[in-house]
Amino acid sequence: MPSVRLVRRYVFSSAHRLHSAELSPEENARLYGKCNNPQGHGHNYAIEVAVTGPVDARTGFCCDLTAVDSAVRRAVLDRFDHQDLNALPEFARLVPTGENIARVVWDKLIAEGLPLTSVRLQETRDNFFEYRGD
Ligand code: NI
Shortest CA distance to 83 belongs to which of 14, 17, 19? Predict the structure, then answer.
């Protein structure tokens, strides 16, 4: 049974501040630079969610795209879009770096039961973070 990977792109806009409670103010300023600014800043994030499955002989589909869309909407977009990520419980003990956002999105979509193979988060024109689980 041939397996196909489906990749779907979604966008959301959020604010964040890179700041670790485990570091001193000086270390935070040195490590994160202007991203440590107490007022935070925003990004137009894009996530590319990849799911894989065998192509159903009857439908010709590898995955139920409607189910993927609703899981991403419910678990990620409805929670993160136009929010301050630092104020969300997901990031209470986690610095909302691109690396950690990609991992949190992965965990949320796994919990939704999606047959995930990767989550790619685009933070800026030039920055991407890809997570494929442990
Ligand atoms: Ni940033």
Answer: 14
